[in-house]
Amino acid sequence: MTDVAWHARIVCGNEVGAGFLVSARRVLTCAHVVRASATSEVTVSFPNSRSLGPLSATVTALGGWAGDAADPGDLAVLELDREVPLEPARFAPVGAELAGDPAPTLVAYGFPKGYDEGMLARYHAVPGALVRDEWRQLEAVTAHGQALAPGFSGAAVTLADGRVVGMVSTVVGARDGRVGRMLPTQVMARYWPELGALLAAPDREGDALRRLHALVRRAVAEGLDCDPNRVFLDAVGPFGPGLPTREGFASLGAAAGYVQWEVEDGEAVTRFADRLQELLDAPPARPAAVPVWSPIVVEMDRSGAGPDQVTVEVSAYRDGQRRRVASRRLPRAAVRAFVQRGIDEAFTQLAPGAEELITFVLPREWLNEPVASWECGADDPTPLGCAYPLVVVDRSRHRSGRLRHQLAKRWQKLDTCPGARLHRVDCGSGERPQSLRKRLRDDDADLTGFAYPPTGAPPHFEVGLNTPVAILLWPRTGCTDPAHDGPCPGTTFLDELTDRLTGVPPAELPREVMDLRETAEADEHPDRHWARTVQLLWDDPRCFPEPAALLHSPVA
To answer: What pTM did the predictor assign?
Structure first.
């Protein structure tokens, strides 16, 4: 071995392990070596540079190790409290542990009990597939030399010339430690993508990899807002591999590392870097005053064919045009399943990347229907209102030319409003409907919150719907007789709503209310959460530029 100064001994609590220096301040080791770092100090020393003395270190990154020997991601990145004047480890090309016939002898520098200065162990890598796509199996060269024992975890596994090919992660325990496992360097880079740049060879391909990882570091430093999954798919192209998991990549670094090690197309690295360069060099996007919503409209009405018969129509808006997806007259008990299927089909009519807005256009007497609580589908119990921005619209307003004109003027003003003020309609106020109408008109009340559902005081809701007010909110359950005195759940509802919506642009309210519904659904006691039944009437006629066609009554 040409240089051993970068080999490190690591102590954390009762654990002693090894590690190796990869930059002036960073050391790699196993996560299980520093498992007690939350309560115990991490100390790093370099036995072959004793003048440095012990240094304190902080765990700055972990590979996701869950705690058992057979769990993947047993890697930790330590940051020393100061830089050290040592040359860091050098890395061999990926797969060098198996190059040649016979395979090269590998050396690990660890610190078994009683040998604080360190011991060397010699092993061969077993050819073939990685164990569970994670570990390369190691077997001892002789039966008499130093075996992998506690204290070797985190040790660099090197070729004879000192270049690193992996890191000791586990001692299997069979045959007195004569069998062990290491994380190969490409697997380590999977959990710490910055390692990928250190593994790049000094050639054209290495230059491309260094550029890729430099751009990833720049994107992280500048807080670039981009979807790593989208960048990955752009890089691999339409015929390349898809996302490795349903969740995709948690970071740009993870996506870049996957392109480097798992994608066979050598040009994918360059395409990934080029796309990232475009995003970094693009001028800052000017925030849009109004989100460009793409409504999926569910319009419902009594069919006239019987008290139990309902006419339902599902449409989607694209490029300002309404596209009818499904229309049916059916029993009320069948409405929910039909709507679920219709909404799912309507998504196929939206433009790629469109901001969907589920809009239920309902008769006035149905405005309190719990449509936000309907499941997304037979196989997906997620409430619609937690999966998508969802609003209700009063059907008579939706069809009134007069009210559509007035509402459009209101929304032109709201576009410049940084955050509308909530006008409260509390229980116990004793306010007459006529007085409420005058107050809402005098105050230009575009955002009004009721402390009770529509059935509590229908005349007051009629005022809110006919004034017109652009946005109404209320709890679907609560006081059925708002004439009482004193505070009630409705008061809490309006207090919380005021705090939550202050400063929120009116155009963003559908998304904000979706977040409220998710918060209530995830609460430990969802039935007690103040927002569990929030209903949002959000009415911007500019989202529906094509005049609404009258619902017909098709034969089922």
So the answer is: 0.50
